[in-house]
Write a structure and sequence with these properties.
By secondary structure, the protein is α+β, with helices and mostly antiparallel strands. The protein is 38% helix and 16% strand. Helix 2 packs across helix 5, helix 4 runs antiparallel to helix 5 and helix 10 crosses helix 11.
Length: 329
């Protein structure tokens, strides 16, 4: 029944609120937990259940169940644990409108959480959630700064993945679920980042930049500069503050930033603002004028010009291409 969930997103559901006992158990940096015994076998993941960009869930007794996940910019990887047959990694693209209903041991599937979903899980299935922030951090570590990792993974959402490396990582994560010590926290944090890196490196066309760029920023400087710029996209960028954080003069910083990313800091800021605007338009609860101001554009006209230049279409047309439930009336 796993694959039917891809089509159940945002359908009317009579799902009662989950008792507090069913909420995932928090750790220091990554939320994880085993669901307790319950005849209904249901739980709900909300945005505030996530911490440091990840969440790991499993049923303690290994039984099947279901999870309702509120809409957010994230994905969830479901992996059926068990003995594998040593097959080479492959993707199964299901023909027609009826996808295969069950995962075999060792297989996995990715779900796009940018719409509310109910995920029905088989026995011995582990869920690893990764949000856009964590995915971008992993991409940034490889100097991939001009792409949305979630968008890049869209072609693989809903496909069955037979990937021994992914299965082995999930098994390693699952083996820490009963531990709540600090060592286990560190292990889970690193393993979830490894899962993110494997997904981006195996199932997207993204390519890391060269390890060093002559005349560019050091990796820590680039990461710090991007964090400063992303901190408040609604405000004007002050290169003095960003360059100070990197220990450089404004002119040196501007040259090095362009050398590392291929674009000027203000152009990079505009692309980040457009990415945030796309996220807000997917929710469909604000006007384009409100979104323009919230993302740091002077007005809707300024937003439209910048969006059309970067995306090749206007915000209004882009929004109308979204699924009906995300359109703005």
């Amino acid at each position: 029944m796993l694959r039917t969930l891809v089509h159940d997103c945002d359908a009317p559901l009579a799902v009662p609120p989950a008792p507090a006992s069913l909420r995932p158990t928090p750790t220091r940096d990554i939320r994880f937990g085993g669901m307790s015994h319950d005849p209904v076998r249901q739980a709900r993941i909300r945005p505030d259940d996530w911490s440091d960009g990840a969440i790991v869930l499993g049923w303690r007794d290994g039984m099947a169940g279901s999870l309702r996940v509120d809409r957010l910019d994230a994905l969830i990887l479901q992996v059926r644990l068990g003995e594998t047959e040593g097959r080479s990694p492959h993707r199964e693209v299901v023909e027609g409108s009826q996808p295969r209903m069950l995962l075999n041991a060792g297989e996995a599937i990715l779900h796009d959480l940018r719409q509310t979903c109910v995920l029905r899980t088989q026995k011995r299935t582990l869920q690893i959630g990764l949000d856009s922030r964590l995915l971008k951090q992993v991409a940034d570590d490889l100097s991939i700064v001009d792409a949305d990792p979630l968008d890049e993974l869209v072609p693989v959402f809903g496909e069955v993945l037979a990937d021994p490396a992914l299965h082995n990582l999930a098994v390693s994560v699952g083996e820490t679920l009963d531990r709540q010590d600090r060592w286990a926290d560190v292990i889970r944090r690193q393993l979830t980042r490894a899962v993110a890196a494997h997904l981006l490196g195996t199932y997207t066309p993204l390519q890391p930049a060269p390890e060093t760029v002559r005349g560019g920023l050091a990796p820590w400087q680039l990461r710090r500069a991007q964090d400063h710029i992303r901190a408040d996209l609604a405000r004007a960028i002050h290169l003095q503050a960003v360059s100070d954080a990197c220990g450089l003069s404004i002119s040196h910083f501007a040259r090095a930033f362009r050398q590392s990313t291929g674009i000027a800091p203000h152009s990079w800021l505009t692309r980040e603002r457009i990415a945030q605007a796309k996220t807000m338009m997917r929710r469909g609860d604000r006007t384009l004028a409100d979104i323009a101001l919230a993302c740091g554009f002077a007005d809707q006209s300024h937003f439209t010009r910048a969006f059309a230049k970067d995306q090749g279409t206007t915000p209004g047309r882009w929004r109308r291409l979204l699924e009906p439930d995300s359109r703005h009336a």
